[in-house]
Amino acid sequence: MSYPIYPTLPHDLNSPIHPVSAMDYLPVAPLRALQLHRLQWTVKWAYERVPIFRRRCQERGVRPEHIQTLADIKLLPFSKKTDLRDFYPLGLAGGNMDETARFHCSSGTTGKPICISNTMDDILVWQNGGMRCLAMFGLRAGDVLQVSYGYGLFTGGLGAHYAGEGLGCAILPTSGGNTERQVMLMRDLGVTAIACTPSYFLRIMDEARRQGVDFRRDTKLRHGIFGAEPWTTEMRDTIERETGIVAHDIYGLTEIAGPGVAGDCSHRTGLHIWEDHFYPEIIDPETLEPLPDGEVGELVFTTITRCGTPMIRYRTRDLTRLHTEVCPCGRTMRVMDRISARSDDMLIIHGVNVFPGQIEAGLLRVPEVAPHYQIVLSSTDTLDLFEIKVEVTAEAFSDNIRALENLRKRVLDAVKSIIGLTPRIILVAPGTLPRSDGKIKRVIDNRTK
Ligand code: ADP
Ligand code: ZN
Fold first, then answer.
1. How far is the CA of 23 from the centre of ligand 2 (A)?
2. Which of 59, 159, 186, 251 could pair with 259 in a Cys bridge, judged by C-beta atoms 3.0 to 4.6 Å apart?
3. Are residues 120 and 141 in the same domain?
């Protein structure tokens, strides 16, 4: 691989911009030129190295030299999660085994895992994306980063680990689980930042409460680096209000790299995508036609600097839009909306399309509601049963039946005003719903399909 991964811009040492972030500000014209150059390289590489990709191109009569502009990307075939399963384990790999540095796998929902081989350059590209996210979040050498994402085949742990290490942070690699010890170490080692799923952080918050640990008073925690699952801005506000930390959003996926493909800046306009490595498109999931910036559709990525498993036009199934406006922070890398929904997660209830995030947003607008809930769907022969179990905060929980009934009605109204349906709301005591050490499953769908 002959392309520089690290900033190629002259860096002014007096600039407040962290050196690792210089590339974030590359002016648009050279950025597009760089992307085209890298796209052409990638297509050629994949055409030579990945027989399935070559065959699909040949079926369409496309050859690498047909890619003359960035818009020509639409000539190329899409790839999907099912391809990674159908050609399990390494049918989409471009690197030889002696070039491979590490595998990552993701289980997804059912069936065979998907496997991604990475060369050392790929790992460095991914680390670069992660470092740029952390630098953008305000982390610096001297920060103590607790990595509570799981380590292993899942990209979360190692992704956050290498990103923090690259930036010069002190890493506390706790992985997920053993929450009691996590809280103790966080306090005793002066942890300033934690990386984990937002749902696991909720569990850490519970445990801190149980131990009488107040984040503001007893810890140095300032930054939460949250991702790997959808979470709403309401959830972000709840976490920030209760702990005093800043909850940053980091996005990534195994197929493209891991955490560090995109992240939010302090302006919170959405997530900047490191598009010098990960080229984004938004498509209409029905027609598969590219949509202009500003329109909501399915996010598609092409890796333009990856050798091990070059992914071309990979359909993420995540729904978002690319912004047309430039972010006030000055970064030129395009911004996408936070991923609040994944097309796979859409529920059809009584004929209405509902995303779990809409329910979360409604629930968390009621201050007495704790950020723990479960959506349960079951069916009788004729009717879907739609229940939401919601935890009440310790302060609001009482045996005053009338007060609880009043709260239940307010929760129902909050949800109903967003989704237009009337679920059965069941208020439950604090601490009774399942917690998670990683990605949480909040929907139990027992309906017969
Ligand atoms: P799996 O597909 O098995 O869950 P991954 O760990 O690779 O495996 O998950 C990637 C997916 O996680 C993304 O496609 C997206 O749906 C979700 N995700 C990752 N980061 C975020 C984030 N910050 N916000 C919302 N969703 C996210
Ligand atoms: Zn910005």
1. 13
2. 159
3. yes
